[in-house]
Specification:
Layout: H1 29-37, H2 44-48, E1 54-57, E2 72-86, E3 92-99, E4 104-110, H3 114-120, E5 126-136, E6 139-143, E7 146-149, E8 162-165, H4 174-188, H5 198-204, H6 209-217, H7 222-252, H8 266-273, H9 280-293, E9 300-305, H10 311-324, E10 328-332, H11 336-351, E11 360-363, H12 369-381, E12 386-389, E13 403-408, H13 416-423, E14 430-435, H14 441-446, E15 452-456, E16 467-471, H15 476-488, E17 492-496, H16 504-522, E18 528-531, H17 537-548, E19 554-557, E20 570-576, H18 583-590, E21 601-605, H19 611-622, H20 626-637, H21 662-678, H22 688-697
Helix pairs in contact: 6-7, 7-21, 9-10, 19-20
Length: 707
């Protein structure tokens, strides 16, 4: 039990429920409940699982005299003074001087003038401040620190112990949240049911759930805190791995899939279709896919291949197997540009067969009503052997006569539910999901843990690595002068406008203004094209057709060209304000060049005003390896923001950090897959609570579990 000062909730045991609305918790009420709702906290259970984002050991504070640049620290000191200073850039800098007896640290904020009066009222009083230390012009500083008042008579939940620091929202204070959660933990943690099997807990020496919840909020010691965190992280990852193991087992159940026969002349037919020689990596991956398709179970495979590695050729090989066995194949892409690119490329390659028996159709949202209905009817009748499209493929009213293979391109753009919706168009189709965004191993084990993985780790022969350079804004004219040289040699180029997240309209305006500037100031004699997401489909198609034909010299574009645009003669890309893009997006954009035999270039223009942006520019300039870039991206942005981690149907993690919790992740995966091997439907009485919790959390996974 936590300290007696914690206020327990005055509820009789007969009325207490983890699902009780938090407004009825003592100390909350309707107004505070509304504020907590901004953090998605609506019930007692939500409060229990609103975990601290860190803890501070307030039995020991760092001394200002020992602070080092770059470290994070918590200090306890007295407010000496507060003042506002006008900077050269017309910003207002608020500086608050805090003395802890060993030295003075400056707490600083930009453009928060009201802070001065706030801290002048606290002059002579002690405060606690936490943040990253920087060596400033006048000594050590902490920019934008977290802080709260302190006194010897302060709430014992906030001093003299290891103290939780919670995620907050406007109108909430740490002391307020600690007090409410302390009461909830005391009264309700004992009601939380145990879902982990007893033998797993005993074998891995894991805390029981009640103890873990107490110690994650108000730890008895640092050792108890780490043990509580290990228990809660394991449970979160174990449940996910269990869901993945059950999905995988359900897909692979004998008799659930189609047993495709690989035609004897398949290799010859493939050589006839493809206008180039396959790489060794492509041949290896096609063998893996063919072996999967020949089994009487559903293929469930992830194909990873860097930009330009030839995933489409591999996808076509799988489609040919399905079609030659009398089945239809469907390929779903996230954008109309990419869907059309696949349609044109695959149609051209199939023409090499010299036969008309493999009919290909394109289904996209922008088709006119009559055209759309005709395509839908051909797909439903089985006349269409290969259907390529956007999410229009999964809409109501679209049916297949005999769907045997589903291919999802750029899987991270689609959620679990969308993937399942396309699968439901057939009885038990084989599934191949493809991505050109390399996925770090940790994410492969979590988001794609139910899939077998194939990797194309080799580029087609003759492809030269793209030379990537980072240039300052002051060098922009030199960049465009060099671009002119390439255009004069008969090449084409992309110029990508800055990413403006606040408004798509603003981004369109930025792209239009950039195109006008280049036309008027830099290249008045050249043909400048403009492409953005708010154009009508036929306008986009016309622009891309002109660009492919070489009629447009420079294509100014928003990120609509991130995937799917493939013009071999475009050998240079200039990315304006490159520091506004993440590493994965920069890598995807860069992949639009380097599609032919000529040397290609990518030039990123930005100042690099932060350590983060400098690091990104350095990474992009130093490597073309998508997997190395993905690992760096995961380090810089964290798993919560990384591509593909926020998919529909995959709940976010409340406490697990898949970047730092790899050992626990691997242990959880091993235990989960072993449990499903032992009891495929979790029928044992000991698994009743586990089964119930699993079905509730992962209902979108459509688990084959007997409830």
């Amino acid at each position: 039990m936590i300290m007696p000062e914690a206020q327990a909730i005055q509820q009789s045991s007969s009325t207490r429920s983890l699902d009780m609305d938090i407004q009825y918790v003592k100390g909350v009420g309707p107004r505070l409940a509304g504020t907590l709702g901004k953090l998605d906290i609506f019930s007692v259970r939500d409060l229990l699982y609103h975990f601290p984002r860190r803890h501070e050991d307030r039995t020991r504070f760092a001394k200002v005299s020992s602070l080092a640049h770059g470290e994070t620290a918590t200090i306890l000191g007295t407010v000496l003074t507060a003042d506002n200073v006008q900077t050269r850039g017309r910003l207002v800098l608020t500086k608050v001087a805090v003395d802890d007896g060993s030295g003075v640290v400056a707490l600083t904020w930009f453009n928060q003038k009201w802070r001065k009066d706030q801290f002048l009222k606290l002059k002579g009083r002690e405060i606690i401040a936490y943040g990253t230390i920087a060596a400033g012009r006048w000594g050590v500083e902490i920019a934008n620190p977290e802080w709260e008042p302190y006194s010897e008579n302060a709430d014992p939940l906030s001093s003299g112990r290891v103290v939780p620091v919670y995620p907050l929202t406007e109108g909430l204070f740490q002391s307020q949240v600690r007090k409410v959660i302390a009461g909830v933990v005391d009264a309700y943690a004992p009601l939380v049911g145990e879902v982990l099997p007893e033998d797993v807990r005993n074998r891995l020496d894991l805390m029981d759930i009640g103890q873990a919840l107490h110690n994650i909020h108000f730890p008895e010691s640092e050792v108890a805190l780490q043990a509580a965190r290990k228990r809660l992280v394991f449970e979160e990852l174990f449940l996910l791995q269990l869901a993945l193991a059950l999905r995988k087992r359900g897909m692979e159940a004998p008799g659930n899939g189609i047993t495709f026969t690989i035609p004897d002349n398949f290799a010859d037919e493939l050589r006839q279709v493809l206008p180039f020689e396959l790489t060794g990596a492509q041949k290896r991956v096609i063998k893996e896919i063919a072996a999967d398709m020949a089994r009487p179970t559903c293929m469930n495979r992830l194909l990873q291949g860097d930009v330009g590695s030839g995933k489409t050729a591999v996808a076509l090989a799988a489609m040919l197997i399905a079609v030659r066995n009398g089945y239809q194949a469907a390929l779903m892409a996230p954008t109309e540009i990419l869907a059309e690119q696949h349609y044109l490329g695959i149609s051209r390659m199939l023409e090499n067969l010299g036969v008309l028996e493999i009919s290909v159709d394109l289904l996209k949202g922008s088709l006119r009503s009559k055209q759309r209905q005709e395509v839908i009817e051909r797909i439903a009748s089985g006349q269409t052997k290969i259907a390529i499209g956007t999410h229009a493929l999964i809409q109501e009213g679209v049916g297949f006569r005999k769907l045997g293979l589903v291919i999802v391109d750029e899987q991270h753009r689609f959620g679990v539910l969308q993937r399942a919706a396309l699968m439901d168009k057939g009885l038990t189709p084989d599934i191949l999901v493809m991505t050109a965004t390399p996925i770090p191993r940790t994410l492969t084990l979590t988001i794609y843990g139910d899939l077998d993985v194939s990797i194309i780790d080799e580029l087609p022969p003759g492809r030269k690595p793209i030379r990537t350079h980072w240039k300052q804004v002051g060098e922009r004219k030199k960049v465009y002068k060099a671009l002119r040289t390439l255009i004069d040699q008969g090449r084409q180029a992309y110029v990508v406008c800055p990413l403006i997240e606040e408004s798509e309209k603003l981004q369109v305006r930025a792209a239009s203004e950039l195109a006008e500037f280049l036309q008027a100031e830099m290249f008045p004699d050249l043909k400048i094209g403009l492409l953005h997401g708010q154009m009508k489909t036929d306008e986009k198609d016309a622009i891309m057709k002109s660009f492919r034909a070489g009629e447009i010299h420079i294509l100014v574009s928003t990120t609509v060209i991130e995937v799917g645009v493939d013009v071999a003669n475009a050998t240079c890309m200039v990315i304006e304000d490159a520091d506004r893009f993440g590493l994965a997006q920069l890598h995807q954009l860069r992949g639009r060049v380097g599609r032919g035999d000529e040397q290609s270039f990518c030039v990123m223009i930005c100042e690099g005003n932060s350590q983060d942006s400098i690091k990104r520019m350095q990474v992009m300039s130093s490597t073309n390896d998508g997997f190395a870039i993905a690992e760096e991206d995961l380090k810089l942005r964290g798993p919560g923001e990384f591509y593909g981690t926020r998919q529909s149907g995959v709940p976010g993690f409340k406490i697990a950090d898949i970047f730092n919790d790899i050992p626990i992740l691997e242990l959880a995966r091993e235990e989960a897959f072993a449990l499903v091997e032992k009891d495929p439907n979790l029928k044992a009485p000991a698994f009743k609570a586990l089964r119930s919790d699993l079905l509730k959390k992962y209902e979108a996974f459509q688990l084959a579990v007997v409830s």
